Amino acid sequence: MTPVIELSELAKQYALPGGAGRLTAVDGVSLSVGAGETYALVGESGCGKSTLARMAAMLVARDSGEVRWSGQPVSGMSRRALRKVRDHTQIVFQDPAAALSPRLTVTQAIEEPLHIRGRTGSRSVAELLDAVGLDASMGARYPRELSGGQRQRVVVARALALDPKLLVLDEPVASLDVSVQAQVLNLLADLQEAHGLAYLLIAHDLAVVSSVADRIGVMYLGRIVEEGPAEEIVTRPRHPYTQMLIASVPAFAPGQRTVRRTVLGDPPSPTERLAGCAFASRCASATAVCREEAPAARAVGSVVVRCHHPSGADEAAERLG
Ligand SMILES: Nc1ncnc2c1ncn2[C@@H]1O[C@H](COP(=O)(O)OP(=O)(O)OP(=O)(O)O)[C@@H](O)[C@H]1O
Ligand code: SF4
Ligand SMILES: [Mg+2]
C-alpha cells in the first residue's frame, strides 16, 4: 500500500550566528509511514528529530530531498493541494501549555483551526472531547484550569478537528507526569486504531516508544543509523549506538546489576565535518576504517544499519546461505 508520507533524503542546515559557518541538523534522512502505522524516531537531544518533524509537517523548508504525500511529490503540488496536505498533517508538540492560548476556552481552541479555514469539521466539539476522553463540560474551561494531561488531550482534539491522516508527535508525553504518560499514549493508540492514523512519533526515550511503535528509527547526529521493526530493534540492536541506548533503559536490562542510566559521552558538534563514522569517538568497536570512511546503510536481517561492524551480520549472512 502507498505510504501516507514518504521522506526521501531530507537535509537541513542552519546558519550559525555571525557568519560562523553552518550546522548540519538533518543529513539525508529517508523514511515512510503508512496508514495505521507508528514510526518512532529516537535519539539524543540535538540529533535533529524536531527539525525532521517540522520538515515532515512542512513547517520548516528543506534544503534538499523530497516529501511524497500518498505517493505524490509535494514539490509539484498546486497551492490548493498543498493546503489540503497541510490540513491532513497535524503536529503535536511537547508542551501543551505553550500550544494553547490562555485567552481561549477549550471549545474556542478546538474550533480555532476550523474558523481560520472558514470551514466546519466532520465532528462537533463535544464529539472531539469525547474522543480524547474529556467530559463535554470541559469545553467552557481555560487551559490554566486543566492538568497537563488534560491540556495535551485538548491539543490532540484540536488536531483531530481537521480530520488529519498523519499526526507528527514531537515528544508528546515528555512534559507529563510518568503516571499520565501511559494514559496519553494509550489514548493515541486508540485514536490510531479508530481512524487509521499514521504517526511519526518523536522521543528521547526508547522505553516510551517501544510498546507503541511498529518501526523504530534511531537517529544520531542528523542521520538514521539503524531502522527496522520495533521488536527487532529493542531485542536485537545491531548498531553500537542503539545498543548503548538500550543498555541505558533499566526496563530493557533486568538482568544487569548496575544499569547505565545515562548514555556515555557526548556526540561531536554538528558544526564539525567528520571523515568517518560520526559515532567513532564513543564507540568501543571502532577500528581504523571507522575513522576514515563513513559507513553506508546496509541490510542485516530485517533492519538497515549504518555501521562497518554491526552485530549479528555474520549470523544473518549465514541464515541467507
Ligand atoms: N532554528 C534553528 N537555528 C539554528 N540551529 C538550530 C535551529 N533549530 C535547531 N537547531 C540546531 O539543530 C540541531 C538539531 O536540533 P533539533 O531541535 O532538531 O534536535 P532534537 O533532536 O529535536 O533535540 P531535542 O531532543 O533537544 O528536542 C541542534 O544542534 C540545534 O541546536
Ligand atoms: S562504523 Fe565503526 S565506529 Fe561507527 S558505530 Fe560501527 S563500529 Fe562503531
Ligand atoms: Mg526536539
How large is the count of helical segments? Answer: 12
- CATH fold field value of the domain at 5-88 and 164-260: Rossmann fold
Let me know the CATH homologous superfamily of the domain at 5-88 and 164-260: P-loop containing nucleotide triphosphate hydrolases
Rg to the nearest angstrom?
21 Å
Order of helices and strands: EEEHEEHEHHHHEHEHEEHHHEEH
The major β-sheet equals: 8 strands, mixed
Q: Termini distance?
A: 30 Å
Task: Outline the low-pLDDT stretches.
Answer: 257-262
- Ions, cofactors and other bound molecules: adenosine-5'-triphosphate, iron/sulfur cluster, magnesium ion
Question: Could you report the average pLDDT, rounded to the nearest whole number?
Answer: 91
Name of the CATH first level of the domain at 5-88 and 164-260: Alpha Beta
**Which percent band covers the strand fraction?**
15-25%
Which bin fits the share of residues in helices?
25-40%
Q: Please give the order of strands in the largest beta sheet.
A: 6-7-8-3-9-10-12-11
CATH architect. name of the domain at 5-88 and 164-260: 3-Layer(aba) Sandwich
Chain oligomer state? single chain
